[in-house]
Amino acid sequence: MNYLIAAYAVTIVALVVYGVSLFRERNSLSK
Amino acid sequence: MTEAPTPSDSNANRTTETMSLPSALEQGAARLRGWLGIPIAVLLVVYAYIVVQAPIDNVQGVIQKILYVHPPLAYGTYLGFIVTAVGGALYLWTEREDFDRMAIAGCEVGVIFCTLMLITGPIWAKGTWGKWWSWDPRLTVTVLLWFIYLAYMLLRSFSEGGTRTARFAAIYGIVGLVLIPLNYYIIEIFNNRSIHPDNLSSGSLGDGMGLPFLMGNLALFFVFAYLVLLRWEVESLRTRAALEEAEQFSAQYSGSGGTS
Question: Is B258 domain-assigned?
Answer without folding.
Answer: no
